[in-house]
Specification:
about 475 residues, Serine Threonine Protein Phosphatase 5, Tetratricopeptide repeat, 3 domains, three-stranded antiparallel sheet, 15 helices, about 50% helix, elongated
Amino acid sequence: MKKKIFFGIIITVFISVNTGYPQDPDKTKTGTMPASISKEDKSKFIESASKLLNEYYVFPEIAEKIETYLKTKLEQGVYDTISNIMVFTEVMTNDMQSVSHDKHMRVRLEPPPIVKTEKDDPALNALLGKKELAETNYGFAKVEVLKGNIGYIDLRRFAPLELGKENASAAMKLLSNSYAIIFDLRKNGGGNPEMIQYICSFFFDQPTHLNSLYYRKGDKTTEYWTLKSIDGKKMADVPLYILTSKYTFSGGEEFCYNMLTRKRATLIGEVTGGGANPGTIFPVYKNLMVFIPTGKAINPVTGTNWEGTGVKPDIEIPADKALDLAIDKAAADAKKYREARLDELVVSYKEIHAKIDEAEKLFNLKKDAEAEKMLSFALETGLKDGILEENFINDLGYNFLGKDENKIAIAVFKFNIRSFPDSANAFDSLGEAYLKNGDKKLATDNYKKSLELNPGNDNARKILKDLTGTP
């Protein structure tokens, strides 16, 4: 199984899902460690942890310094007075971080399995871990539309993309017509870089290099660019706000830093936690584990990252006041955004309508080919710009049909079928236009297609019976 690397705080459920992280070579010493810890256990932990750090930590020269520091303190007897295992994990974390200044590097106890069985069942725990992720909506704690058509997302983690993509897409679709959007990351502890990449991709219309992750293993760098293909529509010009706190960490910070450096969002809140180096949890000795950063983030704009410093928001304010301020600012932006879109809508509509009028004149001059080309261009522009949709185009066709301008009506209905080939109504309308124009064969063909797409179309069934003489 391919090793899963998470860009953030790995919690119990992530460990359950991720069964492919590298194992301690000496996996024979397992079992449950009591609340107290012996001198031998402390020594063996430091020895095993040092080996893992030297092999995997993204900064090998610092790994050597950590090893020297821990072993020196061990030999000096500094750790002799520690008997409680929880105290030992805290001291190890503090001592490692005092050398590395890496906030991701932490020592912890292996969490208990989600389900107690006679023999641990990793596959079952993995399934239950996925279930637990689903129960938390893959990090989407709240998605709603506030007053003034302001979208709001309370996102607590960036779940693995393969698990949470459907929820992410649903959230983006719900807010796709918002005039401004607020991402609340004040309780976001991190997560999966691919999910960060996916959500960021909704807010850029041009290929944009968001972040790079360098990994020591293989000496390789993975670049994360916005995705061209997403399940939803791009919102590249929608005003965007991000709320931060001192608890916003790791992958949550990457999302903030991506948007900040690309000047795509306004950040409001507190300076974030300051963890920029992705990695994974390694079993060390018995049920003691250590999170080792195996890579580092490299922002394409700054050439650096937020490790140790955090991401400084545009507007620094206590986290509990950030939402109210963001709503006030987003409301003003949303109003301007709406007005600008309405102005664009009116201008675009007038331009499209002028082209349709020109196409109508060309049909009347019997320049059918030129007229159809002009009509298709106008309607395609309207669809692309989101001004026109199927029902509007259908009504336009009937407007011409009502004026006995059958040729242009047929051209409009044919365009609708090309654009919406699964629409029973579009085929029904074209059938009616052909019938009015005296072409019973094409009318029959289109009514049959409409009935095939919608067997409940009684109108098509009745007309077909009149046309063909068969029920």
